[in-house]
What we know:
With 104 residues, the chain is α+β, with helices and mostly antiparallel strands. 24% of the residues lie in helices and 24% in strands.
Amino acid sequence: MKDNTRNGRMRIVKTPSGQVPVAIRNEWIGVEMPFLEVGIPRGSVVGVVNGKKVKPAQCFIVDQQEALNALRKKTPAAADWWNRMGFPWPLGQFTFNAECAEII
């Protein structure tokens, strides 16, 4: 049976939007990772820094642990920043705005 939990792989090609300092967001450029789906997330979307609700938009939805593992391969210091901020959350997901990534 085919595993439908991962739709494919994506690469960050532009600085993602968000509340995180731009220097950390820039480190995502070039990182490749599996994505769970592309679309508008169901349920609440919250900012990773302030925890406030964010208006959902078209995005790549990825597993936080997998994303941080991929980031660590490129830039351990950026992954360490996320770890100091309390990530990954158990069963947590990151959203990357659709304009910043491409399917590979």
